[in-house]
Design brief:
Two copies of one chain form a homodimer. By secondary structure, chain A is of the alpha/beta class. Chain A folds into three domains: 13-59, 434 Repressor (Amino-terminal Domain) (Orthogonal Bundle); 70-168 and 310-333, 3-Layer(aba) Sandwich (Rossmann fold), CATH 3.40.50; 170-308 and 338-346, Rossmann fold, CATH 3.40.50.2300. Chain A has helices spanning 13-20, 24-31, 42-55, 61-68, 84-99, 113-125, 139-149, 170-184, 206-223, 238-252, 264-274, 279-283, 310-322, 343-346; strands at residues 73-78, 103-108, 130-134, 152-156, 164-168, 196-199, 231-232, 258-261, 286-289, 303-307, 329-333, 336-338. In chain A, the strands form two sheets. In chain A, strands 2-1-3-4-5-11 form a six-stranded parallel beta sheet, sandwiched between helices. Chain A has a six-stranded mixed beta sheet with strand order 7-6-8-9-10-12, with helices on both faces. The first copy, chain A, is elongated, with a radius of gyration of 27 Å. Residues 1-6 and 345-351 of chain A have low confidence and may be disordered. Chains A and B meet through helix 4, helix 5, strand 2, helix 6 and helix 7 of A and helix 4, helix 5, strand 2, helix 6 and helix 7 of B. Chain B binds a DNA duplex through residues 12-14, 22-29, 31-32, 34, 38-41, 44, 59-69.
Chain lengths: 351, 351
DNA sequence: ACACCTTGCGCAAACGATGGAGCCAAGGGC
DNA sequence: GCCCTTGGCTCCATCGTTTGCGCAAGGTGT
């Protein structure tokens, strides 16, 4: 067990060659699977394989990569890990990478532009085979680096302009969510309180912009012109969201009849405020959240959620990579609506 | 923007050498920061730096790694990403790795022993500098691989026997959570329903085993002997947990007065069942969950949660690596108790 | 007997970066 | 005039794999 021996150096191809009496090239071709092409006899191959196994040989991928000019590493950069969406992306990415015999390298950059650059440079200098870029603050800068480094790249969940992009259909998802909450909201409430509100996100963010479009479109079609103050893009911080919803309620004299919450963190902020309100008031507000959280399904009031199809997003991205598509093009993937558990209205009776 | 040029080959040290009129070794030492040791003049250094910058040179780390016998890659393997605890671990790991100028490589293995082996072999063959092993089904096998490959390794959140381990103090955490729910449960309920129950987890899992110990210890001290059927280690699947809690309630004629839920997934399963019950019955059951989820704080009944100190776990692991500790030893980190929001009992009145 | 494949393998030159061991000139001490 | 130090570089072997080319032995067709 406790055996911190000086760790003799790992055996190399040459060691195996010496032990087996074959040349390094023969050993190499046997161990890298190209032996039939080099007409190595099955007998020799088997002998070499068994010696290599006995010696615990494993090929040095830095050397192989150097020689072959690739690395069999697949890169993914994303803003952060502790978020269901990105975690799901990572999970799918790993699966796809492994299916192609690549080693996934997933790095988060915390939405810090300098960190994004550093990380991408780092990955390029590792000779990464390709890079999937999910959620960068400056896609153009990253794209430029990749092109300079000769690294194929695909944007995920954000539209880039120098390479293919696979994004959620945010407009359609937002429209769907908006339809859903409008269908369920109480009509007939007079004044500003009778209108739906959109809360959270950054308008500079392409995803938020598209969602606002979807929201506006549906509201305009069903209820007429949308007032600018119905859209409160206050960022993603829970604390800020809490303050905004409190202020809104103050202005309106109560919660609005419908609320489109733009992200789970915004939803958290909203929650901290509304749980302090009388249950009847909460009941009067139909809530939609553009993000999914399974636990949120069990809250004592219904929450309509959108779940982005992360698996499909990643799958499409890999298809583009497999097909060696380099030209910019945009693929949109429809997200799913997750209805609230039907339990709410019947069991936790807040009336 | 749209510029899929043939991607001329990346410049190498030799290219920069040629352009600057210096030798490759001079360029190398300038660009890798060892130039003062080699007495290169500031003037030469600056000239080389500017040429390298203009050419967009970036060092090929496969070549460097091959030559130096290291990779500046830091490995972490974990069961999965879509879990708050592991996501937090990943986040801290990345931060620590970057602080040391290493590139984090985090790979999940889905608790599949074969995948674990494959992944570790893969990382070793990438000449990873060290490996942090979080949540493996067969730590011994992985440890053996690392030793054979000469890779320093540290176990995280699971005790290994051939290298240092940093684990949550599961016994203490469980004892704390148990104390908490016992303090709040209704006493005086007669029969089996008046006893606390432990639900979820795998007894073969070291963490679960320690938590059961903590639970038993506290219950035994306060309520006397613990019946074996008070511990239901039914794994982590929500569906299974749901079935078990339903069966338990059937047997007892109601929910027990206190429930220790061993993981968030188990909690999800329990939730799907108990939300179908009359609110009064839920009120009668004090729930503790050994895992943390912020949304769960907003459920209409209090949930006492334990949050593992992932940051401290990772920080200690890196300290051990920095100190080049190889001998087995065990470091325990105390987790935190997250009390429920005080709101529950007052606002969402379920009685 | 000669021109041919086919089989089975070895030689040696890369891949790009690194660092120990030089080499040469200028300056200083004796 | 000789030796030594210091500064400022260059040369070249090396890390472990891969792969284009080549070569010999044996078989086949004529």
């Amino acid at each position: 067990m406790n055996d911190p021996r000086p760790l003799r150096p790992k055996p190399t191809l040459r060691d195996i060659a010496r032990l087996s009496g074959a040349s390094t090239s023969t050993v190499s071709s046997v161990l890298s699977g190209t032996w039939q092409a080099r007409r190595i006899s099955e007998i020799t191959a088997e002998r070499i394989r068994s010696i290599a196994g006995a010696q615990g040989y494993s090929t040095n991928r830095q050397a192989r990569g150097l020689r072959r000019g690739q690395s069999e590493l697949a890169g993914l950069i994303l803003p952060m890990h502790d978020n269901r969406f990105f975690a799901a992306i990572t999970q799918s990415f790993e699966a796809e990478a492994r299916a192609r015999n690549l080693c996934p390298v997933v790095v988060s950059t915390l939405r810090d532009p300098r960190e994004e650059i550093r990380t991408v440079e780092r990955l390029i200098s590792q000779a990464i085979d390709f890079l999937v870029i999910a959620g960068a603050t400056d896609p153009a800068a990253i794209g430029a680096l990749c092109r300079a480094g000769g690294v194929r790249h695909v944007y995920l969940d954000l539209p880039g302009h120098d390479a293919p992009s696979v994004v959620s259909d945010n407009r359609a998802g937002a429209a769907l969510l908006t339809e859903t909450i409008l269908d369920r909201m109480e009509s007939g409430t007079a004044g500003p309180r009778g209108r739906p509100y959109f809360l959270g996100g950054a308008p500079a963010d392409a995803a938020t912009a598209r969602r606002i479009e979807g929201f506006r479109e549906v509201v305009a079609a069903r209820l007429g012109p949308v007032d600018p103050d119905q859209v409160i893009a206050c960022g993603y911080a829970p604390s800020r969201a809490r303050a905004e919803i409190a202020a809104l309620r103050e202005r309106l004299g109560g919660l609005p009849v419908a609320l489109f919450v733009n992200a789970i963190t915004v939803f958290e902020g909203v929650l901290t405020h509304i749980v302090t309100l009388p249950p009847a008031e909460i009941e009067g507000c139909v809530i939609g959240c553009y993000d999914h959280d399974p636990i949120a399904s069990f809250l004592p009031f219904p929450v309509h959620m959108i779940r982005q199809n992360s698996e499909a997003l990643v799958a499409r991205a890999f298809e583009l990579i497999d097909a060696e598509v380099d030209a910019p093009l945009l693929v949109e993937i429809a997200p799913d609506l997750v209805p609230p558990r039907s339990i709410h209205s019947t069991r936790f009776d807040l009336g």
